[in-house]
Amino acid sequence: QVQLVESGGGLVQAGGSLRLSCAASRLTFSNYAMSWYRQAPGKERELVASISSRDGSTNYADSVKGRFTVSRDNAKKAVYLQMNSLKTEDTAVYSCNAVHALRRTEYWGQGTQVTVSS
Fold this sequence. Notes:
Number of strands: 11
Shape: globular
Radius of gyration: 14 Å
Structural class: mainly beta
Largest sheet: 7 strands, mixed
Number of helices: 0
Order of helices and strands: EEEEEEEEEEE
Strand content: over 45%
């Protein structure tokens, strides 16, 4: 069974940094586009950042551009989200998502809580 396991969440003060990791197992990782989503209480889930399976091209939500960086290590089957200059509005549960480039099969991790205090 495919698993995506996030780690690295926690409590940080505004202006601080966190690095989230998502470890994948039981899938051909290099065939999957990887994304980070977040959902804050009372709000809809939103796409934060994504990285393609083929050329590693990235996309970011406007709210995190210049502050967050998504990267992947296909050898380790892992995707990362480096979050700098964190704001209180970044507080949310962050989840890892994998989508097969051709078949569009989709998997989700269980999420990790990020809390940014003022």
